[in-house]
Amino acid sequence: MRAPLWATPTTILRTKTINFRLAIICLAAASVGLSIAIISIAKLLLLCSALALLIFSRTPSENGAPLAKTWTMPAVIVALLAFVLSLLWTVAPQEVALASIAKYGKLILVLVMMALIRDRREAMYALGAFAIAQLVTVLSSWLLFVGAPIPWASSRTSLTHYTVFSGYLDQGIMSAVFAALCWHLRGLTPGRFGPQIAVTAALVSLANVFFVLVGRSGQLVGVALISLAIMWQLPRKYRIVVAVLPFLLVVALFFSSPTMRERLTLLKTEVQAYSATQNSTTSSGVRIAFWQAAVQVVAQKPLIGAGVGSWSTEYDRLERAKNPKHQAINPGSNPHQEYLYWGVQLGIPGLLLFAAFLLSVLRDSTRMEVPYARAAQSAVLALAVACLFNSTLYDGLIGDFFCILIGLLLALGLTKPAGPPTLERVT
Question: Does the pTM of the predicted model rise above 0.85?
Answer without folding.
Answer: yes
